[in-house]
Design brief:
The protein has 526 residues and is an alpha/beta fold. The protein has 2 domains: 355 residues, TIM Barrel (Alpha-Beta Barrel), CATH 3.20.20; 74 residues, Immunoglobulin-like, CATH 2.60.40. Helices cover 27% and strands 17% of the residues. It contains 15 helices and 21 strands. The chain starts with 6 loop residues before the first helix and ends with a strand.
């Protein structure tokens, strides 16, 4: 049986934050054997692609996004053999694992950087980005680091040994590597091959738009103390034309392995036309983060979704997510809003990404100051990222079945009711809503391959059809606080899924009443 080359367009992705998924050795921290033990659950849920956040060797100054060895597993997560066992089990279940690639920077403790900083004439002296101070001793230019929305500082850090500044676009413990050096580029390409040879199906590439910087290191024409504005206005620090060539070269490596996917994290605020440039050079999906930072309103959906779908068209694969390891969970929208988000995520044209625990309705936990772990301030939330990284809630038992000992972060107070074991038994739970939506998506070609037509409805109702051949689905979302009555398009329709109750496959008549904050999926009878 030939492999489905479009699996990443038609399947559902699930992001696992390994520290918080399942603890197999009872040290309070999730690990790769823990992921392996829970793969059957993900298969049951209907997941096809698994994105694992970094588990590579790291001092954990940024919990794995600061790497000291790209080719090994950090001992807190297990071993390379544990990784291979996980891969074998995922292949057996038909699950496809993609990894986080962090190619812009390493840890300052990486052997590459330790050698690079040791002298100006060592073999790796040019593996990172070094510049002399200005005559007054100040940094080489006005580029900013973005680890905090409140007080972003210089992107340059002083090294006493070399008597030079090194570029660290995110924090001083994460120095930027020099992609203009062919040896650096070759080393990163070898990282790709190492993991591809072990069977991974692709990479989510961290901050891909930062790979190349202005060769003349010119000052930004305008700088600001708000990180998102700095990113959107910077013209020299990121988004250089050479980056597109680097993307193309990564694509050439990926193409040596069939059915592999590249997903690029770019800054959250880029114009759509800018994202398309990445796809023209071989990036399969530039991540779309708009749903993670925008209100869930009809006005926003009308202004964004149709434009996004039309702009990408057949040129690139649309994709959607409501949360990730850097931004708050969808329960920030309230329970009805999170249910509407689930329906949107799994019915829009494009690839959906579920962040672990979203399918349960896990909340953003108010982590007390004495339990906080995140060393940086998120430039998106303006605060710690710990609330959306808390342990997965598996059972109503001690420590939510995540571990037999105190987890590295506190659990949500409602874990006794918001967990896999309990929600599997409740047809009206968030988990079973996700399950119904994913099952419906898998069983209807219109949901995986159909084109999308946004319809015009009165009031706060947002709706669209998905159609392929004689398979047509209508999605209606009442985003308002009052009941709305909707005139249905011509034809006979049956209710398949509601966000508010488990009743399904019942005939409906026009006009159809929609409760406040209710979403429905209707199927047209052929």
């Amino acid at each position: 049986m030939s492999e489905n080359l479009n699996w990443w367009k038609e399947g559902v992705f699930y992001q696992i934050y390994p520290r918080s998924f399942y603890d197999s050795n009872n040290d309070g921290i999730g690990d790769l054997p823990g992921v392996t033990q829970k793969l059957d659950y993900l298969k049951w849920l209907g997941i096809e692609g698994l994105w694992l956040s970094p588990f590579f060797e790291s001092p954990m100054d940024d919990f794995g996004y600061d790497i000291t060895d790209y080719l090994n597993v950090d001992p807190i997560f297990g071993t390379l053999n544990d990784f291979d066992v996980m891969m074998a089990k995922s292949n057996e279940l038909g699950l496809k694992i993609i990894l986080d690639l962090v190619p812009n920077h390493t840890s300052y403790k990486h052997p590459w950087f330790q050698e690079s900083r040791s002298s100006r004439d060592n073999p790796k002296a040019d593996w990172y980005i070094w510049r002399d101070a200005k005559p007054d001793g100040s940094p080489p230019n006005n580029w900013c680091a973005i680890s905090s929305i409140k007080k972003i500082g210089s992107a340059w850090a002083w090294d006493e040994t070399r008597k030079q500044y090194f570029l660290a676009s995110f924090s001083p413990v994460q120095p930027d590597v020099n992609w203009r050096n062919p040896e650096v580029k070759a080393a990163i390409m070898d990282v790709l091959r190492f993991w591809l040879d072990r069977g991974v199906y692709g990479f989510r590439i961290d901050m891909i738009d930062y790979l190349s910087k202005d060769a003349e290191f010119r000052d930004e024409p305008s700088s600001t103390l708000e990180a998102k504005d700095y990113i959107s206005t910077a013209v020299y620090h990121l988004n250089q034309v050479e980056t597109l060539q680097y993307v193309h070269e990564m694509r050439q490596v990926m193409d040596q392995y069939p059915a592999r996917v590249t997903i690029g994290e770019t800054a959250y605020h880029h114009p759509l036309e800018q994202l398309l440039k990445f796809t023209e050079h071989g990036l399969d999906m530039p991540f779309n983060f708009r749903f993670t930072i925008a209100p869930l309103t009809k006005a926003f959906l009308e202004s964004f979704v149709k434009t996004y779908d039309t702009t990408f068209g057949t040129k690139a694969q649309p994709n959607y997510s409501f949360a990730n390891h850097d931004v708050l969970r969808a329960t920030r929208l309230g329970d009805p809003g999170a249910r509407l988000a689930a329906m949107l995520l799994l019915t829009l044209r494009g690839t959906p990404f579920i962040y672990y625990g979203e399918e349960l309705g896990m909340e953003n936990v108010d982590v007390p100051p004495e339990r906080r772990q995140d060393p940086f301030v998120s430039y998106e939330s303006g605060g710690t990222r710990d609330p959306n990284r808390t342990p997965m809630q598996w059972t109503p038992g001690p420590f939510a079945g995540f571990s037999t000992t105190e987890p590295w972060l506190p659990l949500g107070l409602n874990y006794a009711t918001i967990n896999v074991e309990v929600e599997k038994q409740n047809p009206n739970s968030m988990l079973m809503l996700y399950k119904r939506l994913i099952d419906f998506r898998q069983s209807h070609p219109a949901m995986r391959q159909g084109h999308m037509t946004v319809l015009d409805f009165m009031g706060d109702v947002y709706g669209y059809t998905r159609t392929v051949n004689d398979d047509q689905v209508l999605v209606l979302l009442n985003l308002g606080d009052v009941e709305e009555t909707v005139d249905l398009p011509d034809g006979e329709w049956s209710l398949q899924i509601s966000t508010l109750h488990a009743q399904a496959d019942t005939a409906v008549l026009s006009p159809l009443p929609l409760q406040a904050h209710e979403g429905v999926v209707l199927l047209k009878k052929s």
